Amino acid sequence: MAPPTDPTDPAYAAGLDAADPLGPHRDLFVGAETPLVYFDGNSLGRPLRVTGERLRTFVEEEWGGRLIRGWDEAWMDLPLVVGDGIGAACLGAAAGQVAVGDSTTVLLYKALRAAVALRPGRTEVVLNRDDFPTDRYVAASVARELGLTLRWIEVDPAAGVSVDDAAGVVGERTAVVLLSHVAYRSAWLADAPAITAVAHDAGAVVLWDLSHSVGSVPLALDDWGVDLAVGCTYKYLDGGPGAPAFVYAAARHHEGLDQPVTGWMGHADPFAMGPDWVPAPGIRRMVSGTPPIVGMLALQDMLRLLAAVGMPAVRQKSVALTSYAVDLADAWLAPLGVALASPRDPERRGGHVTLSHPRMREVVAALWQADVLPDYRDPGGLRLGLSPLSTSFTEVRTGLAAVRDLLA
Ligand SMILES: *Cc1c(COP(=O)(O)O)cnc(C)c1O
């Protein structure tokens, strides 16, 4: 029998699942056996089943058994050990350039202050009017503190910042270009190497927010010459609610890296308890206070899985999932007045797809009642976050059929 060619046919989705080399990984996640449709893996990834056992063992053996000795034996180094794990599995970053801790918001503040300090005398920060709120708010505070000017790039909310957009505003006054690599609303995948080169040609540094790309889109921060980057670990890295963020700083900047939250844990010798702050060598100076050890446990399980699978395979599955969602939206939802608010070209699209309709807010509320969990983002955007290792093609079809039925 010939394989089905109509994407709306349930057998078509089943065929994609059967042919998917990463398909069996879905069973490694908690809840895979339930009929719930999860389209929000880019806001809070599902936990791996092994994480339950890791948490229990941690309480009984490491925390309960080692007690205060745990700091000397392992925990003190964990922000950099886990940072190296993120760097190797996801960022294309050599060891010693990534630290884990704080929230993305706090690390963004520290990294932006450090980035501005790398370019004394320059007065402008370039950013995107449609970027995630925390990025815009933090940049506004840094500008206020330091007397800088924010230079906004205006973009189409269904697309994002192009190389030409960036080249049009970056200039000799630019200290820092702060942008998201994958746009939280549209999933626009910025051309990070080219935009980084535009910034460098003008003598500026770049700070990339990788919250929606890490664990979904392959990154090569060292090769691209990126200066600084930050990102979340509770989205595609499945670190759990409130899991700490990470910061990357290229080794060439470490010597002069001046961040403002100079806590004892970023000191060269924390237990000397000396009168003045002396920065630790390397990326450790980006650490401020006591590292959130419990918050890094789940993340380590996901990093192990991502390292084994490899980001190119993850990206291939991600493109297949988002392309299938676009095909179903074209067939079922476009006739009902739904517009694609994400790039159609998979080369310019990250791991999610946004579909817009004036009544999408009501649709999303009804979907949640039916155990289909996407996200809603104004204006009228249904956001499908398709976490590559924990989402099946049949799940995509089931969820979009529910959207079709509600709109009809
Ligand atoms: C999710 C996200 C954040 C989150 O910041 P928190 O401090 O973890 O709440 C920041 N920036 C972007 C672009 C995001 O998508």
Quick description:
With 408 residues, this protein is α/β, with parallel strands linked by helices. It has 13 helices and 13 strands. The strands form three sheets. A seven-stranded mixed β-sheet has the order 2-8-7-6-5-3-4, with helices on both faces. The chain has a four-stranded antiparallel β-sheet with strand order 9-10-13-12, covered by helices on one side.
How would you sum up this structure, described in words?
This protein is an alpha/beta fold. The chain folds into two domains: 10-47 and 310-407, Aspartate Aminotransferase, domain 1; 74-307, 3-Layer(aba) Sandwich (Aspartate Aminotransferase, domain 2). It contains 13 helices and 13 strands. It has helices at 10-19, 49-66, 69-73, 78-91, 104-117, 133-146, 163-169, 192-201, 221-224, 297-309, 311-333, 360-369, 393-407, and strands at residues 37-38, 98-100, 124-128, 149-153, 174-180, 205-209, 228-231, 246-249, 339-340, 352-356, 372-373, 375-377, 381-385. It has a seven-stranded mixed beta sheet, with helices on both faces. A four-stranded antiparallel beta sheet has the order 9-10-13-12, with helices on one face. Strand 5 (174-180), helix 8 and strand 6 (205-209) form a beta-alpha-beta unit. The model has no long low-confidence stretch (mean pLDDT 97). Pyridoxal-5'-phosphate is lined by residues 103-105, 132, 134-135, 180, 184, 209, 211-212, 232, 245. Its EC number is 3.7.1.3.
